[in-house]
Amino acid sequence: MKKLFFITFLMITALGCVQKSYEQTVVFTLDVSNVKEKIETVGLRGEGKPLSWDADLPMNPIKKDSLYTVKVSATTGYKFAEVKFVVNGKFELEGKPNRRVVFDESRITNYNAKFNTEK
Protein backbone atom coordinates (compact mmCIF):
# COMPACT_ATOMS: atom_id res chain seq x y z
CA MET A 1 0.00 0.00 0.00
CA LYS A 2 2.86 2.35 0.81
CA LYS A 3 4.36 1.67 -2.64
CA LEU A 4 1.08 2.55 -4.39
CA PHE A 5 0.78 5.77 -2.38
CA PHE A 6 4.38 6.71 -3.17
CA ILE A 7 3.94 6.07 -6.92
CA THR A 8 0.69 8.05 -6.96
CA PHE A 9 2.39 10.90 -5.07
CA LEU A 10 5.25 10.99 -7.56
CA MET A 11 2.88 11.05 -10.54
CA ILE A 12 0.81 13.90 -9.10
CA THR A 13 3.94 15.86 -8.23
CA ALA A 14 5.38 15.38 -11.71
CA LEU A 15 2.15 16.44 -13.40
CA GLY A 16 1.93 19.51 -11.20
CA CYS A 17 5.37 20.63 -12.36
CA VAL A 18 4.43 20.99 -16.02
CA GLN A 19 5.38 24.45 -17.16
CA LYS A 20 2.45 26.57 -18.32
CA SER A 21 2.65 27.72 -21.96
CA TYR A 22 1.51 31.08 -23.24
CA GLU A 23 1.55 33.14 -26.43
CA GLN A 24 4.54 35.49 -26.55
CA THR A 25 5.28 38.12 -29.19
CA VAL A 26 8.62 39.87 -29.63
CA VAL A 27 9.15 42.78 -32.01
CA PHE A 28 12.85 42.89 -32.89
CA THR A 29 14.31 46.13 -34.26
CA LEU A 30 17.92 46.13 -35.43
CA ASP A 31 20.10 49.15 -36.20
CA VAL A 32 22.67 48.17 -38.87
CA SER A 33 23.98 51.68 -39.56
CA ASN A 34 27.44 50.61 -38.31
CA VAL A 35 27.82 47.93 -41.03
CA LYS A 36 30.34 49.15 -43.61
CA GLU A 37 29.66 46.66 -46.42
CA LYS A 38 26.64 46.69 -48.73
CA ILE A 39 23.73 45.02 -46.97
CA GLU A 40 22.12 42.21 -48.94
CA THR A 41 20.30 40.29 -46.18
CA VAL A 42 19.42 40.87 -42.53
CA GLY A 43 18.08 38.04 -40.41
CA LEU A 44 17.48 36.63 -36.97
CA ARG A 45 18.46 33.21 -35.65
CA GLY A 46 17.64 31.50 -32.38
CA GLU A 47 16.18 28.56 -30.54
CA GLY A 48 12.60 27.35 -31.01
CA LYS A 49 10.13 27.76 -33.84
CA PRO A 50 9.72 29.94 -35.81
CA LEU A 51 13.43 30.61 -35.18
CA SER A 52 16.30 28.31 -36.06
CA TRP A 53 20.07 28.32 -35.67
CA ASP A 54 20.37 26.87 -39.19
CA ALA A 55 18.50 29.49 -41.25
CA ASP A 56 17.74 33.20 -41.04
CA LEU A 57 14.29 34.52 -40.29
CA PRO A 58 14.39 37.50 -42.70
CA MET A 59 14.03 40.96 -41.24
CA ASN A 60 12.20 43.70 -43.11
CA PRO A 61 13.67 47.15 -43.76
CA ILE A 62 12.12 50.12 -42.02
CA LYS A 63 14.88 52.28 -43.49
CA LYS A 64 17.10 50.38 -45.96
CA ASP A 65 20.72 49.92 -44.87
CA SER A 66 19.88 51.37 -41.47
CA LEU A 67 16.92 49.88 -39.56
CA TYR A 68 15.23 46.45 -39.84
CA THR A 69 12.43 44.73 -37.98
CA VAL A 70 10.64 41.41 -37.58
CA LYS A 71 7.76 40.30 -35.37
CA VAL A 72 7.96 36.81 -33.88
CA SER A 73 5.07 35.07 -32.11
CA ALA A 74 5.17 31.65 -30.48
CA THR A 75 3.64 29.58 -27.74
CA THR A 76 6.27 28.98 -25.07
CA GLY A 77 6.74 28.06 -21.45
CA TYR A 78 10.03 29.94 -21.24
CA LYS A 79 10.56 33.45 -19.86
CA PHE A 80 13.35 34.32 -22.31
CA ALA A 81 14.89 33.46 -25.67
CA GLU A 82 18.45 33.46 -26.98
CA VAL A 83 19.12 34.97 -30.41
CA LYS A 84 21.77 36.42 -32.69
CA PHE A 85 21.38 38.72 -35.66
CA VAL A 86 22.90 37.89 -39.05
CA VAL A 87 23.91 40.33 -41.81
CA ASN A 88 24.91 38.97 -45.22
CA GLY A 89 25.15 35.48 -43.73
CA LYS A 90 27.58 36.54 -40.98
CA PHE A 91 26.70 36.10 -37.31
CA GLU A 92 27.23 39.02 -34.97
CA LEU A 93 29.18 38.84 -31.71
CA GLU A 94 31.45 35.98 -32.84
CA GLY A 95 32.80 34.06 -29.85
CA LYS A 96 30.52 35.92 -27.46
CA PRO A 97 27.31 34.76 -25.75
CA ASN A 98 23.97 34.93 -27.52
CA ARG A 99 21.66 37.85 -26.84
CA ARG A 100 19.17 36.97 -24.11
CA VAL A 101 15.72 38.45 -24.67
CA VAL A 102 13.70 38.47 -21.44
CA PHE A 103 9.98 38.45 -22.18
CA ASP A 104 7.76 41.24 -20.87
CA GLU A 105 4.88 40.12 -18.63
CA SER A 106 2.44 41.87 -20.99
CA ARG A 107 3.24 39.09 -23.54
CA ILE A 108 4.53 41.69 -26.02
CA THR A 109 8.22 42.51 -25.86
CA ASN A 110 10.02 45.18 -27.89
CA TYR A 111 13.71 44.39 -28.35
CA ASN A 112 15.98 47.03 -29.86
CA ALA A 113 19.60 46.29 -30.72
CA LYS A 114 22.57 47.56 -32.73
CA PHE A 115 24.32 44.95 -34.89
CA ASN A 116 27.47 43.46 -33.40
CA THR A 117 27.21 45.66 -30.28
CA GLU A 118 26.53 44.23 -26.83
CA LYS A 119 23.87 45.91 -24.72
Quickly list its features.
119 residues; mainly beta; Immunoglobulin-like; 4-stranded mixed sheet
Q: How does the SSE layout of this entry go?
A:
Layout: H1 2-16, E1 22-31, E2 42-46, E3 57-58, E4 60-63, E5 67-76, E6 80-87, E7 90-91, E8 99-102, E9 108-114
What does this 3D model show about the protein?
The chain has 119 residues and is mainly beta. The chain has one helix and nine strands; from the N terminus they run H-E-E-E-E-E-E-E-E-E. It has one helix at residues 2-16, and strands spanning 22-31, 42-46, 57-58, 60-63, 67-76, 80-87, 90-91, 99-102, 108-114. The strands form two sheets. Strands 2, 3, 6, 7 and 8 form a five-stranded antiparallel sheet that branches. A four-stranded mixed sheet has the order 4-5-1-9, with no helix packed on it. Strand 6 and strand 7 form a beta hairpin. The longest helix has 15 residues, at 2-16. The protein is globular, with a radius of gyration of 19 Å.
Strand content: 35-45%
Runs in which pLDDT lies below 50 for 5 or more consecutive residues are: 4-15
Classify the fold: give the CATH topology.
Immunoglobulin-like
The outline comes out as globular
Number of DSSP helical runs: 1
Write the element-wise H/E pattern from the N-terminal end onward.
Answer: HEEEEEEEEE
Biggest sheet layout: 5 strands, antiparallel
Mean pLDDT: 89
Question: How much helical structure, as a percent, in the residues?
Answer: 10-25%
